[in-house]
Design a protein that fits this description.
Shape: globular
Helix content: 25-40%
Strand content: 15-25%
CATH superfamily of the largest domain: Aconitase, domain 3
CATH topology of the largest domain: Aconitase, domain 3
CATH class of the largest domain: Alpha Beta
Mean pLDDT: 97
Number of strands: 18
Structural class: alpha/beta
Number of helices: 17
Largest sheet: 5 strands, parallel
Length: 459
């Protein structure tokens, strides 16, 4: 009896090495401007070519500005990286979704949009949040620059097979509790190291009831519990999302693919190396208070107390106090976006929530779509008009303030409520303080000017 992870992994083994890693075939390779230049440079020095260019797609996302994308990138290093990506893609005949093109965006957003992300695939990228694609029942994980070179050159990678973990969330999520709250809750219980050495399958009623976009949010942050990746078994929700996407099989090939995909879920008696079970009714809107994603609490709780130096140091950096409520803390910045929460469903939820409300003048808010497709849909559906009426502005696609690698940096000492995936010291800018939350909780802070339980604001 096999897990879905075992089925996919074992089907892609090219060679097993005794007392060593497996040589694993990679179906899809995603690249961007940050982790690919050195890989291509090394290939050039070795005289290597990209073995299967049609199995690689590229897009610039980490370093790109989110305003004036029709103009040259001002930051010299960022401009050089983007130009080098263009050059390498042209040399090696790799499909590039460049700035301004119809499918430009964050690499983990455009893959599913195009239908490139499919059940049963092995998918890698030089980015830790490649785990996002596991939402489709794929084995997807981040790799380093030397491994990027390996995949470009051989379409294979050497990996030690991880152990398996299943996290089951029974019951249904309550109103105003989202996929982001679900995964922040899980990480707060398991810890940021609890998944180390494992590949995690998420299951249970609460997970099954999530949309594909919600599932992507959950799998995106599986890496934040230390796991190698996360995945969710494909079902009718998955198939409905993928049907008629640009790159999915068509006609008889679609029916053949469905037959294969429906055999992927873990066998009924499959054994996992470790299991956790949680109750969805215990999950409330969540927010982090410290400097790692595991330091999260329910928004109506007080900041906990722990007598260890790293915990105390974290609270000091964030400027918060044990025993005090987290609600009511003043906020300087709010960021809606990233590969975690920059999809159209996130913008729809935000637009619906802000109807009839106004942004607090003291809060700087960046709402950044994850792709040109999301941006286009936001305009077509009237979401942008709603946001503008409430005092918000939609920027252009990119990783933006998720990480301090572009112009969208949170200033030193300022507090940001962010829908991204990491809240490490300086993650959003030198000296910046970050609290992770769902789009609804984040936008509630932008409206009131302080940390707010979205349920009280809506009432």
């Amino acid at each position: 009896m096999n897990t879905i992870f075992d089925k996919i992994w074992d089907a892609h083994i090219v060679r097993k090495i005794q007392v060593g890693p497996d040589v694993l075939f990679i179906d899809q390779h995603l690249i961007h401007e940050v982790t690919s230049p050195v890989a291509f440079l090394n290939m050039k020095q070795r005289g290597n070519k990209v073995l299967f260019p049609d199995r690689t797609i590229a897009t610039p996302d980490h370093n790109v500005p989110t305003i004036h994308q029709d103009q040259p990138i001002q930051d010299v290093e960022s401009r050089m990286q983007v130009e080098k990506l263009r050059e390498n893609c042209k040399i090696h005949n790799i499909e590039l979704h460049d700035l301004g093109s119809a499918h430009h965006g964050i690499v983990h957003v455009i893959g599913p949009e195009l239908g490139i992300t499919q059940p049963g695939k092995t998918i890698v990228c030089g980015d830790s949040h490649t785990s996002t694609h596991g939402a489709f029942g794929a084995v997807a994980f981040g790799i380093g620059t030397s491994e990027v070179e390996m995949v470009l050159s051989t379409q294979c990678i050497m990996q030690t097979k991880p152990k398996t973990m299943r996290i089951t969330v029974n019951g249904s999520l309550k109103p105003y509790v989202t996929a982001k709250d679900l995964i922040l809750y899980i990480i707060s219980k398991v810890s940021t190291s609890g998944g180390t050495g494992y590949f995690v399958e998420f299951s249970g009623q609460a997970v099954k009831e999530l949309s594909m976009e919600g599932r992507m949010t959950v799998c995106n942050m599986s890496i934040e519990m230390g796991a190698r990746g996360g995945l969710i078994a494909p079902d009718e929700t998955t198939f409905s999302y993928l049907k008629d996407k640009e790159r999915t099989p068509k006609g008889e090939n679609w029916h053949q693919a469905l037959m294969e995909w429906k055999n992927l879920p873990s066998d009924e008696n499959a054994v996992f190396d470790k299991e956790y079970v949680f109750d969805a009714t215990d999950i409330e809107p969540m927010i982090t208070f410290g400097t790692n994603p595991g330091m999260g609490i329910k928004i109506n709780e007080v900041i906990p107390t722990e007598d260890n130096p790293s915990f105390i140091k974290s609270l000091k950096y964030m400027g918060v106090v044990s025993g005090a409520p987290i609600e009511g803390i003043p906020v300087d910045f709010v960021f809606i976006g990233s590969c975690t929460n920059g999809r159209i469903e996130d913008l729809r939820a935000v637009a619906e929530f802000v109807k009839g409300k106004k942004k607090n003048d003291k809060v700087t808010t960046w709402i950044v779509p994850g792709s040109k497709e999301v941006e286009k849909m936001a305009h077509e559906e009237g979401l942008v008009a709603i946001l503008e009426q409430a005092g918000f502005e939609l920027r252009q696609p990119g990783c933006s303030a998720c990480l301090a690698m572009n112009d969208d940096k949170i200033p030193n000492g300022k507090l940001s409520v962010s829908t991204s995936n990491r809240n490490f010291e300086g993650r959003q800018g030198p000296g910046a303080k970050t609290m992770l939350a769902s789009p609804i909780t984040a936008i509630s802070a932008a409206i009131n000017g302080y940390i707010t339980d979205p349920r009280t604001l809506e009432k």
